[in-house]
Structure formats: structure tokens, C-alpha cells
Write a structure and sequence with these properties.
Elements (H helix, E strand, L loop, with lengths): L2 E6 L7 H16 L3 E6 L5 H12 L5 H25 L4 E4 L6 E3 L8 E4 L2 H8 L3 E5 L2 E3 L5 E3 L5 H11 L4 E6 L20 E3 H9 L7 H10 L3 E5 L7 E4 L12 E5 L2 E10 L4 H11 L7 E3 L6 E9 L3 H15 L3 E5 L2 E7 L9 H11 L6 E5 L2 E7 L3 H11 L15 H8 L4
The structure holds adenosine-5'-diphosphate, aspartic acid and magnesium ion.
The site of magnesium ion has 3 residues, from loops.
């Protein structure tokens, strides 16, 4: 008998019928003799709708109130799932983040989990109850509700699995595991049976939405095994775990794309020491998450500095740069939202020269212009025009010999849900 934490994402609990299916899955596990703990996301697009409601009333909603609002989505689905389980004759209780003992730091909207006191959940398990925990939320030292960033229910699940010393953390979504690229963008993507924490973390950080990067980071740190699998089938998914000695090491494990960033360019900056330091320390002070940085060659003593950051940080970034324009004596500051980051990832890259050359020549042959480049030892990222992202992912997937013989077939979602997924670049 084992203890399994099962996390269900928004599409898996989008309707009463789907919640019934989730309940049936939990009951089946119970009948096999396992103890189960569920973690749920908000139903369907609830979180996006709540964000929209807030925006209708306040252009810059206070972060504390935003967290209070967003945390309600998960509280609906947790209660409904507990009711569905009870209706089928199984004892269940729902728990908010606070009731589940999840404490976080005070950074509203992207809080980090600082601790979990799992005794109340453990007691429920020992009493034969199926606990259902609201994902994505915790409580800070002021007793205020916090949320863990978009996709944060994954992190709740991993933290709960760690706190309960569970055997595995199963993360159910609308695809049957981690693929070599988003299968909705690259239908020839291949489902991976295993992926190492390092590769997964790099893919998630590069924008592969299937697992939140914080969740992978937490899992890697505390050695929690994640099983990413489908809520709509019984197929085995992908195990995210420590790299085993005999695990095959591909040069490129996967490709991620990310349309959630914006490129900001400060033009005509004097080419002298201290300017970059001033720009980026002010951005850091304003809590802007800067990703790539590009400084062009100077001409006539002036240069351009570009950087990318999440679209959500754009207003803050533009405001910050605006406030220091007189000091840095720049000519103007412009932004470009129509960009995408495409990254190839693989720990095998370290011992394989020529990967970058192959990537760039493939993009060149396909007439895809590269706007910026950044690398880590196991990742190469390029910025391209957003309209060229799908083509870039597909041609790189082919060039690095990753194409599967079969084509991904949609089994779970409605056309409307697929459309919503495709334009997710938050
Ligand atoms: P949930 O709402 O259940 O948390 P998500 O939408 O966060 O689910 O994650 C699942 C989605 O991640 C899939 O629908 C798929 O389009 C996308 N995705 C992106 N990259 C990958 C990948 N490499 N493998 C599988 N799915 C991916
Ligand atoms: N409901 C939150 C979101 O949509 C958290 C999650 O689903 O993991 O981002
Ligand atoms: Mg998710």
C-alpha cells in the first residue's frame, strides 16, 4: 500500500461530469488499497475570469486583494470534489491552503512555500478520509492569503507530497505526460517515459507549461518523484526523477516555446560604464523579472540595450525606465509584444559540440530570423517573431531527430478549450 498525492488541473475539473470522473479515479485507487490525497486547481478558466473581473474594477488591483480573490477558485473545486466523493459513499474533507498548513513568504501573487505542517492532512488520511486540498495558495506570516503564481497548484501538490512523505506525486492534466515539445504545437512530438529533474526544470523555466517550474525545483530539491499523466486515460505518463545511470541521454531532450514575454529596447544610451548597472538595479528594485539581455555594438558613442521580461511586468518595466530616462540620457524606450522564445534543452548538450550551429543553421534554412540568443550549459534560447514560433519548434524538432512516427491526436478537450490553451501566453 502506498500514499499517493493526485493533483488535477483546471481542465480535469472543468465541469461536474469531469469532477465525477476525478472522484471515480480517486475511489479506484482507494479500492486498490492506496491512501490518496487530492490537490485541485480552479475549474476551467476560473482564474482567468477572476483576473478579468479585477481588471474591470481596478487597473492596478492591490496584490493582497488579488490573492484573496484568486484563491477562491480552488476553494470552489475542492468543496465540489469532496461532495462528489461523499455522494459516492466515501468520506472526504476539503482543506484550504491555510487549513492544510501551507505557509509562504509575503510576495503576493508569486509566493514561495516556506513550510508545510501536514499533521491535519495526515490525521484525515489515517481516519480513512480522502482529503482534498486547494492548490495554488497558502498563508503568510501576517495571516494573509497568498498565491503561488500561475500554475502553482503543481507546486502545492509537490509540497504536500513531500510533507506527507508520499510515494509519488501524480500530476494529472489534459495530455498524457511530458512530450519532447508541446504536442499541440508540434504534433510529431514524442511522449517521454522519463525525464531528469535538470532537463525538466530547464524546460519548465523556458516556458513549457506542462509543469510549473517552482514545482520541479521543489521536487528536485527534496527528491519527490513526479508522475505527469492524463486525467482522461489510464496510460502511463512521464516520470520526472533523478537521472538514472542507464537513462538514455539525448543531445536534445525537448523544445520549449514561450509567448508570455515582451522585448523592451532602450535606444540611444550613452556607451559608458555604469548605465547597465543603473538600468537593471532599478528594474530589480521594481521586482521586474528580467530574462534575456542584449547590448548592441556602440555607434557614435551610443548604443541600444534590450531585455525581455514577462508581459505582466511590462507596465512596471516601462514606468521604471521612464523614471530614469533623464539620468541615463537615453533617446527613447520602446516595446515589442510580438515575440516568442524558443529553447532547445538537453543535459546531453554539454558533451556534444555543434548544437548551437545546428540550431542556427536550421532556423536560417527556414528563413526564421533570430532577434536574440541566450544560453546555459544545457539550453540554447532564441527570440523569434511570435508568428514564426510554431514553424521554429517544428523544424528544430525535425532537425534534432526527435520526430515521432505517430501524430498527436487530441482525445480530451473541446475545440474551445484547445483554442484557449493555444493563446495562453500570459
Ligand atoms: P493543467 O491545467 O492541468 O495544469 P496545463 O495547461 O498547465 O494543465 O499543462 C498541460 C498543457 O501543457 C498541455 O495542454 C500542453 O498543451 C502544454 N505543454 C507545453 N509543453 C508541453 C510538453 N513538453 N509536454 C506536454 N505538454 C506540454
Ligand atoms: N488556478 C491557478 C491558475 O490557473 C493555479 C493552477 O491552476 O495551478 O494558474
Ligand atoms: Mg498547469
Amino acid at each position: 500500500m502506498s500514499l499517493i498525492v493526485c493533483k488535477f488541473g483546471g481542465t480535469s475539473v472543468a465541469s461536474p461530469e469531469r469532477i465525477q470522473k476525478v472522484a471515480a479515479r480517486l475511489i479506484a485507487k482507494k479500492q486498490e488499497g492506496h491512501d490518496v490525497v487530492a490537490v485541485v486547481s480552479a475549474m476551467g478558466k476560473t482564474t482567468d475570469e477572476l483576473v478579468g473581473l479585477a481588471a474591470a474594477l481596478n487597473e492596478k488591483p492591490p496584490a493582497r486583494e488579488m490573492d484573496r480573490l484568486l484563491s477562491t477558485g480552488e476553494q470552489v473545486s475542492m468543496a465540489l470534489l469532496a461532495m462528489a466523493l461523499e455522494a459516492k459513499g466515501y468520506r472526504s474533507m476539503s482543506f484550504t491552503g491555510r487549513q492544510a498548513g501551507i505557509t509562504t513568504d509575503k510576495t503576493h501573487l508569486k509566493s514561495k512555500i516556506t513550510g508545510i505542517a501536514a499533521d491535519r492532512i495526515m490525521k484525515a488520511v489515517n481516519d480513512g478520509i480522502i482529503p482534498v486540498i486547494a492548490g495554488f495558495q497558502g498563508i503568510d506570516e501576517n495571516d494573509d492569503i497568498t498565491t503561488l503564481g500561475r500554475g502553482g497548484s503543481d507546486t502545492t501538490a509537490v509540497a504536500v507530497a513531500w510533507g506527507l512523505n508520499a510515494d509519488v506525486c501524480e500530476i494529472y492534466s489534459d495530455v498524457d505526460g511530458v512530450y519532447s515539445a508541446d504536442p499541440r504545437v508540434c504534433p510529431r512530438a514524442r511522449k517521454l517515459d522519463f525525464i531528469s529533474y535538470d532537463d525538466m526544470l530547464e524546460l519548465s523555466s523556458a516556458g513549457s507549461g506542462v509543469l510549473q517550474s517552482r514545482a520541479v525545483e521543489f521536487a528536485r530539491k527534496y527528491k519527490v518523484v513526479i508522475h505527469s499523466r492524463s486525467a482522461f486515460s489510464d496510460a502511463e505518463g512521464t516520470y520526472v526523477q533523478e537521472k538514472a545511470e542507464d537513462m538514455e541521454e539525448a543531445v536534445v531532450t525537448g523544445i520549449a516555446h514561450d509567448t508570455s514575454e515582451v522585448k523592451i529596447t532602450i535606444r540611444g544610451v550613452p556607451d559608458m560604464s555604469g548605465v547597465a548597472a543603473m538600468v537593471f538595479s532599478h528594474l530589480a528594485g521594481a521586482n521586474v523579472s528580467v530574462d534575456m539581455i542584449i547590448q548592441n555594438v556602440a555607434e557614435d558613442g551610443r548604443t541600444d540595450i534590450s531585455f525581455t521580461c514577462p508581459k505582466g511586468d511590462m507596465a512596471k518595466a516601462m514606468e521604471t525606465i521612464g523614471s530614469i530616462m533623464p539620468e541615463i540620457k537615453a533617446r527613447e524606450c520602446i516595446f515589442d509584444e510580438n515575440i516568442a522564445k524558443v529553447s532547445i534543452v538537453g543535459t546531453g548538450m554539454k558533451s556534444s559540440p555543434g548544437v548551437a550551429a545546428r540550431m542556427f543553421s536550421t532556423l536560417g534554412e527556414n528563413e526564421i530570423n533570430i532577434l536574440a540568443i541566450s544560453t546555459s550549459p544545457i539550453r540554447i534560447s532564441v527570440i523569434v517573431r511570435a508568428t514564426e514560433a510554431t514553424h521554429a519548434v517544428q523544424c528544430l524538432h525535425t532537425a534534432f531527430d526527435m520526430d515521432s512516427d505517430s501524430v498527436f491526436v487530441e482525445t480530451a478537450l473541446s475545440a474551445e478549450e484547445i483554442a484557449a490553451k493555444m493563446q495562453k501566453g500570459r
